[in-house]
Amino acid sequence: MPTATPFELITSVLSTADAFLREGTRLFKPLGLTVAQYNVLNVLAGNPENGGLSQRELSDELVVDRSNVTGLLDRMEKAGWVRRADDPADRRIYRVHLTPEGRRLWEKTSPLYAAVVAQVAQGLTERQTRETHAVLARLKTGAAQWKLPRL
To answer: What is the residue range of 97's domain?
Structure first.
């Protein structure tokens, strides 16, 4: 097997991420959702008892810029899937919550997503999954810590 360079690895990761985004769009578009909107529903559904998430916590969890989250939440709030409420401890912060309609949409779409994920990962052993997760975590850390080389 030929040796892959770090450049080829990163190119492969990005190509795979593009394929996942493209196929996620194919899955969610008929349901009236974008991939980003599903990700918000999924994160909020996983945090039901904590008083919602701040927009900053949500952007950190989704690994997107906070300015992108604002527009995304505006559209989702207009659709009736999320609501923003003042944080009782800090008037500068909004807490984001799933609405009952948003929870129903998440409950409808999550089994479909889980079925697709199972198909995509079919054939991977538990060890391969664990090792791949560890490698991707190291790449994510490296991406957050790199320094601009001198030119």
So the answer is: 21-107
Number of structural domains found in the chain? 1
Under DSSP, the state recorded for 64 is: S
Contacts of 37 (CB under 8 A, 6+ apart): 28, 72, 75, 76, 81
Residue at 49 is within a domain: yes
Is 52 inside any structural domain?
yes
pLDDT of amino acid 49: 64
pLDDT at residue 48 in the model: 66
6: amino acid identity, one letter: P
Quick count: other Cβ atoms within 10 Å of Cβ 39?
A: 19
List, for the chain, all residue ranges whose pLDDT scores fall below the cut of 70.
Answer: 1-2, 48-50
Q: Tell me the three state secondary structure of residue 148.
A: coil
φ, ψ for residue 128, nearest 5 deg: -60, -40
Cβ neighbours of 103 (radius 10 Å): 16
